[in-house]
Amino acid sequence: MKAVGLTRYLPIDDPQSLVDVDIATPVPEGRDLLVKVAAISVNPVDAKVRAPKDKVEPATRVLGWDAAGTVAAVGPDVTLFKVGDPVFYAGSITRPGANSEFHLVDERIVGHKPALLDFAQAAALPLTAITAWEALFDRLGVSPQGEHAGRSVLVIGGAGGVGSIGIQLAKTLAGLTVIATASRPESAAWCRDLGADHTIDHRGDMPAQLRKLGFAEVDYILCFNDTDRHFAAMATVIAPQGKICSIVENSGPLAVGDLKSKSATFVWEFMFTRSMFGTPDMIEQYLLLNEVARLVDAGRLRTTLGENLGRIDAANLRRAHAMLESGRTIGKLVLEGF
């Protein structure tokens, strides 16, 4: 089968950083689905995993953790899907990725594709929807039924993939007052179009900008952009007994002691945790994705596809990685078909 992979970890402008290859089609076992991949999307995790380092893989490594396609075969223990089902999912970072014609994935982290979306539109959603949902509802404890409506949330990095769905979940389901950060007029407009009540620039003085809007403090913070850079501002603006969740790993020590006097919570979200550790509640991601699909088909959530870069091949994936590394993408980058 066709795939895009690597054996060396190189700068993205090197033609060998991602290459077209032919590899064996895998066979499903246990609870695995074999998915015929129709579309994929690219996330910052792809670029981080591919980033230059002194390592050589003994065999081609395939990346990619967002896909939509059709179930082509099932393992003997599968109960949730059948051959022919359209699906969308993010996969496991501990297994070969989805940048291939066929891909194996555990059924417990797969959802039925939203009926109203095509495969490209659906591929934009899984990783970011799981991340934002778990961050907001599981880690911060916000009610998706609107029990905390009217409270405030600051979404740092609102125009990125996770921010784009996070704004929708916070506004549409939770009923929060959403302040999103964006550094350019076009990204600020994107955030407002998705439902943000206000936008500020995370390159500037965020506490001052929030005060100007009338927010001396916020109840919740979702950090989807540079935890190290924004931690001091987050500690300043979080409300007493407020909660902060970040998805971006820190590169240096964080001054968590600054949160003590406020009894504020700081928590991480990593959407691969369940599949990486095989947690007993892995099936929660199956349920989560099916709920996202239901909300999309009900017109309450929409795809976050920003740009379709064309077919799935090494050249287009290198282009997508380069765009992500620029830090200037809006929404999700998607590739479709081999």
From TrEMBL:
Pfam families: ADH_N, ADH_zinc_N_2. It comes from the Bacteria. This is Zinc-type alcohol dehydrogenase-like protein. Belongs to the zinc-containing alcohol dehydrogenase family. Quinone oxidoreductase subfamily. NCBIfam families: adh_fam_1 (TIGR02817). Keywords: Metal-binding, NADP, Oxidoreductase, Zinc. CDD domains: AL_MDR (cd08252). Residues 13-335 form the Enoyl reductase (ER) domain. The lineage of its organism: Bacteria, Pseudomonadati, Pseudomonadota, Betaproteobacteria, Burkholderiales. GO terms for molecular function: oxidoreductase activity; zinc ion binding. SUPFAM superfamilies: GroES-like, NAD(P)-binding Rossmann-fold domains. InterPro entries: ADH-like_N, ADH_Zn_typ-1, ER, GroES-like_sf, NAD(P)-bd_dom_sf, Zinc-ADH_QOR/CCCR.
